[in-house]
Amino acid sequence: MNGPTQAGDLSVADIVIRKTTAAQQVADGLSDLILSGKVMPGQRLREAAIASELGVARNTIREAIRLLEFAGLVKLEINRGVVAISPTRESLSSLYSARLVLESSAVEHLADKASIAKVRQAYDTFIDSVATQDVGTIVRNDLEFHSSIVSLLNSPRIGQFYAQLCRELRFYLVFLSLKDSQFVRISGVRDEHKPIMEAIEAGDVARAKQAVIDHVRKNEERVASLIFRHLPRDMADTGAKSGHLS
Question: Cβ(200)–Cβ(149) under 8 Å?
């Protein structure tokens, strides 16, 4: 018979392993729809309709919505209810400012050859994926390449924060790619990312930093220009009133 747990001991005997809850399953399913571009920015998610179609309780849907809100994929708007995230110029500028700081700081750390090799692997996977013409795959690999750059900082906490930024950005990029087939042209993808990769492999911090800055700023301008063009007029007007790109 085991004695009482001593100070500093860890007892896991009372932990119960449970299957994923219904709310988590609904949240995962809705997340897939949102990130695949099947839900537009600003589109309402009607709890009653979702509950009826899935045959689950409204409370389950509410819990799923809370999970999505925590993940940054939906928000609650007055008089509209729950909607998929939609950008304003201010929020988009803030997102790209964070990207710029993290990625430009990361390329100051080019001493670890093993980490640079991982960046190269992510880059090759990304470039190869463009030929598939699968929007979801291309966008995911694009962001994984940029995440591999941020990983040069060797900070799991920063990596988690960047992953949150990528979740929001992935939604916008998939939406744009589906609306504008020229958004992921293979020649353009190579031209935009090759200078970054070459500078990183050369160990040229100044050149890598400038390449990252040029890429992020150009991408921000392009995304803002396209996304507000493709959003419904009422959402685009709301975004235009919320601030200006720097």
Answer: yes
